[in-house]
Design a protein that fits this description.
By secondary structure, this protein is mostly beta strands. The protein has two helices and nine strands. The protein has one domain: Hypothetical Protein Pfu-838710-001. The chain has an eight-stranded antiparallel beta barrel. It is globular and about 40 Å long.
Length: 157
């Protein structure tokens, strides 16, 4: 069983950009409805690779997560024919701060304008350096989870 321990924050400014990698564009879609059943099931394509991802519906810092590679052509077909709309479109940048890797997601499409930073930890109480561009924590706010942005896109808030 895989446990993901992740904290999620808004981004206060563009100070992270100078240290970021070139970014990877992602498209992902959900095969299940939000809040139905014990897990969300999504298809994600990014960097020329595709994955099927299953996450427990428990929103918050700790969740069960499983990920499996998919053939790219099948993933494209699933996104086109089986996934709920709107698809989640974003570019993910990676920035190393101290001993941790931050992932900054710049959302596009119906979620344009939303910028979120995530950090994965090895334990819930693990200390980490807070970079100056980091804004308010939203780990416990379901609106900022990708699975929720399908039903309630940022542009409609």
């Amino acid at each position: 069983m895989a446990i993901e321990i992740e904290r999620k924050f808004l981004v206060a400014d563009d100070g992270w950009r100078a240290a970021a990698d070139g970014g990877t564009r992602y498209r992902q879609g959900y095969l299940t409805e939000t809040g139905v059943g014990p897990a969300s099931v999504r298809v994600r394509i990014g960097g020329g690779r595709a994955f099927l991802n299953i996450k427990s519906h428990t929103l918050g810092m700790e969740r069960r997560e499983y990920e499996y590679p998919l053939p790219l052509d099948e993933a494209e077909e699933m996104l086109e024919r089986l996934c709920r709309r709107p698809l989640i479109e974003k570019t993910r940048y990676r920035v190393r701060v101290g001993g941790h890797l931050w992932e900054i997601d710049l959302f596009e499409g119906e979620n344009a304008g939303l910028v979120v930073a995530e950090i994965e930890l090895s334990r819930a109480d693990e200390p980490f350096e807070r970079p100056p561009w980091l804004g308010r924590e939203v780990t416990d706010d379901p609106r900022y989870y990708n699975v929720c942005l399908v039903d309630h896109p940022f542009s409609r808030w």
